[in-house]
Design a protein that fits this description.
By secondary structure, the chain is of the alpha/beta class. It has 13 helices and 13 strands. The longest helix is centred in the last third of the chain and has 18 residues.
Length: about 375
């Protein structure tokens, strides 16, 4: 059996006729940027998330960068301010902080839950701390009431990186509506993925939304009148139309991911492999299913020998990247261990029960 890590062709084909109709309508309309499709998707996605505003942008990194930039323009952040961020995250999260001349303060994560270590957040807060950038990594909701209390007590901005957790829940609310603002990526492999790049910011703050929209359109407050030194960051009409189709299926697709994850949790019994703590249904939408073992490379080869493709997320933490050598002295032991031990198993909504069971069997047959 041959199982790719992510079968985008099959995922897209599940809603292929709807997507083709939506794309054809945009092509036939002759209007490809800043049109009705983007406006409709922004309205629908804001409603889905439970936010008052949604601003479509070019990609997830832009969503993060523009949000922090807008807070600077609004006077809520200043250069040199500290932003607390989980050490175990994709590089883009940290790039958005340093791009704005803000200072990332790396917080280690819990080994069992993979969540940012809440007690360490409290210990890291100083007079210079102005924001927490919370990352719902792997599709897991990392928000909790204690983090919210710390933000309230210390007057901190709470910004969500929701790039991997579309549709995830905290109680009756969705991630993307829990903080002051949330940043979303629609990279094709995401739970809500476009057929190219795309991103968005959701918020209840009208001034923030308008500032992001202005900066993203060259800084123009009106045509050819620049209020800010802006940039060009747009979600195009075709991608918006595709996302609007896929949004209608997101909850069902996430439920399929959850069912596959249950198969993994129920079936994997290899003592050489550690699974992260299982979360309540709905609080994890399983963008990534990570497993951990000191014999990571051997496990990867074992699975590959049996036709199963895997990926590693993320082998070099941000503070150990060459571009951030100023942080290389930091000791973040859990994050560093996860980077050495993490392997991501195939999991996507087009995956069959037979394929999931085969992955379980081969993982269990691993004998390091």
């Amino acid at each position: 059996m041959n199982i790719p890590y992510l079968d985008l062709k099959s995922i897209t084909a599940q809603h292929g006729e709807e997507i083709q109709r939506a794309v054809a309508e945009i092509v036939d309309s002759g209007w490809y940027l800043q049109g009705n499709a983007v406006q409709l998707f922004e309205q629908h996605y804001a409603s889905y998330i439970g936010a008052e505003h949604c601003v479509g942008v070019a990609n997830g990194l832009d969503a993060l960068t523009l949000t922090l930039r807008a807070y600077k323009e609004l006077g809520k952040l200043n250069e040199g301010d500290e932003v607390l961020v989980p050490a175990n995250t994709f590089l883009a999260t940290v790039l958005s902080i340093t791009e704005n001349n803000l200072k990332p303060i790396f917080i280690d994560v819990d080994e069992d839950t993979l969540d940012i270590h809440t007690e360490s957040i409290e210990q890291a807060i100083t007079a210079n701390t102005k924001a927490i950038l919370l990352v719902h990594l792997y599709g897991r909701c990392t928000y909790n009431s204690r983090i919210q209390d710390l933000c309230n007590k210390n007057h901190l901005l709470l910004i969500e990186d929701n790039a991997q957790a579309h549709g995830c829940r905290y109680g009756e609310r969705r991630t993307g509506s829990l903080g002051h603002a949330a940043c979303h990526s629609f990279y094709p492999g995401k739970n809500l993925g476009a057929l190219g790049d795309g991103g968005a910011v959701t918020t209840n703050d009208e001034a923030l939304a308008q500032t992001i929209r202005t900066i993203a359109n060259y800084g123009f407050s009106e045509k050819y009148v620049a209020a800010y030194k802006g940039r060009n960051s747009r979600l195009d009409e075709i991608q918006a139309a595709v996302l609007d189709v896929k949004l209608n299926h997101l909850d069902n697709d996430n439920n399929r991911r959850i069912n596959i994850a249950r198969t993994y949790y129920k079936g994997i019994r290899n003592e050489a492999i550690r699974l992260p703590k299982m979360m309540e249904t709905g609080t994890n939408v399983y963008h990534i299913f990570p497993v951990f073992t000191p014999q990571r490379d051997a496990l990867k080869q074992h699975l590959q020998d049996h036709g199963i493709q895997t990926l590693i997320h993320y082998p070099i933490p941000p503070h150990r990247q060459a571009c951030y050598k100023e942080w290389s002295h930091l000791s973040l032991p859990v994050t560093e261990r996860l980077a050495q031990e993490e392997l991501s198993l195939p999991l996507h909504p087009a995956m069959s029960n037979e394929e999931a069971a085969y992955v379980v069997d081969i993982v269990n047959s691993f004998n390091p």
